[in-house]
Amino acid sequence: xxxxxxxxxxxxxxxxxxxxxxxxxxxxxxxxxxxxxxxxxxxxxxxxxxxxxxxxxxxxxxxxxxxxxxxxxxxxxxxxxxxxxxxxxxxxxxxxxxxxxxxxxxxxxxxxxxxxxxxxxxxxxxxxxxxxxxxxxxxxxxxxxxxxxxxxxxxxxxxxxxxxxxxxxxxxxxxxxxxxxxxxxxxxxxxxxxxxxxxxxxxxxxxxxxxxxxxxxxxxxxxxxxxxxxxxxxxxxxxxxxxxxxxxxxxxxxxxxxxxxxxxxxxxxxxxxxxxxxxxxxxxxxxxxxxxxxxxxxxxxxxxxxxxxxxxxxxxxxxxxxxxxxxxxxxxxxxxxxxxxxxxxxxxxxxxxxxxxxxxxxxxxxxxxxxxxxxxxxxx
Length: 380
What we know:
alpha/beta, nine-stranded mixed β-sheet
């Protein structure tokens, strides 16, 4: 694994090899943002909604990522965002024309921030256009889609990353380090609570055709993904139960509240809850023989707060999570950096495999077995 320092020491002619390896055109390499940081990843944002606004604003504090393209179905947004972020008209696209990014040397990667049901086709099109892809979670609607997305990016020789911003969050990484270093002792139990009371009943998150589900796909995935990197193993079984109290807002196929339990090969169990109808649910708790670790809030936009058996976790929040995420993803794509907690397409696929199993467990009322290695290869 190349460190940032080694990367900088070997810049110059060797940098051209790095760009060629990552599928970038050496003729369009940008100069480093600063001598201490490295080359800049030029990103087109696809889907200019609420979360994209947060990402775009945070990227103004990024040191290695810059907005150089925009993709939207709303002409007014393309104009206003283009003017705000200095994106020229020839780097603004709609959903019908964005395949033309293939011919735009000023775009290295596309960040897909559209409703869940659109991710699959859009990611595949971006890869076919010769661009690296960052995709918001959940990566797709199910494991079948996830496998196709991973395969398409591999075929195109492009990287597929998933917007797991918490994988770069300092307190999260400190607890991960403590567990890995054995400071908690043998891990026994994890609890993950993720939920809020959702508002506007007409929003796309409550439309199964666009969201692919309900709370589990949107907010519960934090607890699901969190239990995997906090425990440090892949689950081998899952059970789940659904509760629905509002059949008007939460129509068929849109889950209101799901509780799910997972078992791990080392004997650890996890108990998680995902809800669109309860506030004050944003907590991770990891218990081991020697101590514990807790995050509350655990997955909000910050500040994240935490404590362990040793006391409070006193780590300054620093820059916005999305700014850090984009800098780290630039290092992954441009430098070949290996993150502490993976954010690649296989990581996104693992979550989709388990989500499929959770929905199956809800439907059947049975314990669903998982085979982590085989699940990534199996065909639905």
